[in-house]
Design goal:
There is one protein chain. The protein is an alpha/beta fold and about 425 residues long. The chain is built from seven helices and 18 strands. The protein has an eight-stranded parallel beta sheet with strand order 8-7-6-3-2-1-12-11, sandwiched between helices. The chain has a six-stranded antiparallel beta sheet with strand order 13-18-14-17-15-16, with no helix packed on it. A two-stranded antiparallel sheet has the order 4-5. β11, α6 and β12 (about 300-305) form a beta-alpha-beta unit. The chain starts with 7 loop residues before the first helix and ends with a strand.
Length: about 425
C-alpha cells in the first residue's frame, strides 16, 4: 500500500473541493503597467483607491460558487502590499484608500470568518518590482541590497502569518527559494504549522503540488501520493506531475485557473480591466474543468478579479452563482449510493434509470488503496463495463454513455490492500 498518508488538514482541504484565489493590485489602477517591461518604475501608490471595497461581497461570491476556502493575493509582483507593512511604504498605508488607514488583509480575514470560508494568503517572494527583484534576485547584483530584500521577505511573512490568526492555506508561487528555505521553514513551524501549503518547503507536513498548468486541470491518473513537491519553472510539462501511488509524500494537486480567457484578458485573466466581461469563461468550460480537477483527485482553485471600485464584477458574480448551482444540480441527488470495505460494491435502484456518471471516493485517511477498477451495469443477465480507471483517491468522477439499468456495481480489480470506499454513487 501507499507509504504516504494525508494530514487532517489535507483531508479538510480535499473536502472543500473548490476554492478561489483573489487578485487586486496597483496595476488595476494603471493597466498599462507591466512590471517586467518597466523595471525602475512602479505606479504611484496614491492611485490605489478602491472606494467601494467590500470583502464581504467577495466572500459571498465565493460561497455562491461552492468555494470552501479563499486565498487572497496580499502582495503580487509589483511589490504593492495590501496591508500596512512595516517593511516599506509601498502599501495601502501610502494610498488614498481610507486615508491610508485601511488593511485589506485584515478585512478579508474577518469576512472569511463571517462567511464560513477558510482563509488563505499568497505573498510573492520571487518577484518584487518595487525592489527591482526578479526570480528572487536583486537585478543589480548588489549583495547588501539582496540581504536587505531577504530580510524584507522574512519580515512580511512574519507579519502575514503572525498578525491575522490561523490560516487554512499558504500559497507559494513558484515554491520556496533555496536561499529563503531555512528561515521560511522556521516561520512556518512557529506561526502556521497547521496550514496547507501550495508548493511549500519539502519539510512541511501538509503540502500541495502544482499540476503543470494554469488551466484548471490535472493529468489522469493523478495520485495524491508522490515522490516530489513540484515547483513551477515555466515548463509546459514536468516529470512526475501525475504522482506515484507508492510515493513517500502526500501532496495532492491544486488546479488553478483564471475565470477570464488567459490569452486575451488583462494580466493573463488574473486581474480586472474595464470592458473584459465578455472574456469570462463560459459556464460549460468551467464545469468541464471541475471534472478535470475535482473529478481527478485534485482541487479546483478559481481566479476571482476585483475591480477598481473594490468589488467582484456583476458579470463574474452571476457566472459564479451559475457554476455553483450547476454543480449542485449534477451532484446533490444521487440515484443510489453506498459505502464500505471490500472489492465489490453494488447499488440497487428502485427502477431502471439512465445513469451517465458515477462518483467514487476512498477513505483517504487510509491512503490510496485502489489501483484498478471498473464500473459495471447489469444488462440482460450479465455485468457490462461502463467505465474503467485506476486512480480514485479523494474523488473520481466517471462519465459514460447512458446505461439504463436498476443495478450498478463498482468492481475493484486490483488494490494495494483492502479498499475502504467512502462513497460509490451513480447519477
Amino acid at each position: 500500500m501507499s507509504r504516504a498518508l494525508p494530514t487532517p488538514e489535507q483531508i479538510a482541504w480535499a473536502d472543500c473541493g473548490v476554492g478561489v484565489i483573489i487578485h487586486l493590485d496597483i496595476q488595476v489602477f494603471e493597466p498599462e503597467y507591466d512590471f517586467r517591461q518597466s523595471w525602475g518604475y512602479t505606479p504611484d501608490p496614491r492611485k490605489f483607491n478602491p472606494e467601494k471595497l467590500d470583502t464581504d461581497q467577495w466572500l459571498e461570491a465565493a460561497r455562491s460558487l461552492g468555494a470552501g476556502y479563499a486565498v487572497l493575493v496580499a502582495k503580487h509582483c509589483s511589490g504593492f502590499s495590501l496591508w500596512p507593512t512595516g517593511a516599506h511604504d509601498y502599501s495601502v498605508r501610502s494610498s488614498r484608500w481610507r486615508g491610508g488607514r485601511g488593511d485589506i488583509v485584515r478585512d478579508f480575514i474577518a469576512s472569511c470568518r463571517r462567511c464560513g470560508v477558510l482563509p488563505g494568503l499568497y505573498c510573492s517572494t520571487g518577484c518584487n518590482a518595487f525592489f527591482d527583484v526578479d526570480d528572487v534576485l536583486v537585478r543589480s547584483g548588489d549583495a547588501a541590497l539582496q540581504e536587505r530584500y531577504n530580510q524584507i521577505v522574512y519580515l512580511q511573512l512574519d507579519e502575514l502569518w503572525g498578525r491575522y490568526g490561523e490560516l487554512f492555506e499558504i500559497w507559494f508561487d513558484g515554491g520556496v527559494a533555496p536561499r529563503h528555505r531555512d528561515r521560511v521553514e522556521g516561520l512556518l513551524d512557529r506561526l502556521q504549522p497547521r496550514a496547507v501549503c501550495f508548493q511549500g518547503p519539502r519539510s512541511h507536513k501538509s503540502n500541495l503540488r502544482w499540476p503543470g498548468n494554469e488551466d484548471g486541470q490535472t493529468p489522469y491518473p493523478c495520485w495524491a501520493a508522490t515522490d516530489e513537491i513540484t515547483q513551477e519553472d515555466g515548463a509546459a510539462a514536468m516529470p512526475g506531475l501525475g504522482g506515484n501511488p507508492d510515493g513517500s509524500l502526500w501532496a495532492p494537486a491544486e488546479c488553478d485557473m483564471p475565470c477570464r480567457a488567459q490569452d486575451r484578458a488583462f494580466g493573463g485573466g488574473w486581474f480586472w480591466r474595464r470592458g473584459e466581461d465578455e472574456l469570462l469563461h463560459p459556464l460549460d468550460y468551467m464545469v468541464e474543468r471541475y471534472y478535470r480537477s475535482v473529478g481527478r483527485n485534485g482541487n479546483l482553485l478559481l481566479g476571482m478579479v476585483i475591480d477598481d471600485q473594490g468589488l467582484v464584477p456583476v458579470a463574474d458574480c452571476a457566472r459564479f452563482s451559475e457554476f455553483g448551482r450547476e454543480i449542485a444540480r449534477r451532484f446533490s441527488a444521487p440515484k443510489a449510493s453506498c459505502s464500505g470495505n471490500g472489492l465489490v460494491h453494488e447499488l440497487a435502484l428502485e427502477s431502471p434509470a439512465a445513469v451517465t456518471q458515477a462518483v467514487i471516493a476512498e477513505d483517504i485517511r487510509l491512503g490510496e488503496r485502489v489501483r484498478e477498477y471498473s464500473i459495471e451495469a447489469w444488462d440482460r443477465g450479465a455485468w457490462r463495463p461502463a467505465a474503467r480507471g485506476s486512480c480514485v483517491g479523494h474523488k473520481r468522477i466517471e462519465r459514460f454513455a447512458p446505461a439504463a439499468s436498476d443495478r450498478f456495481r463498482l468492481n475493484i480489480g486490483r488494490a494495494a490492500s483492502e479498499p475502504a470506499i467512502r462513497e460509490f454513487a451513480v447519477y
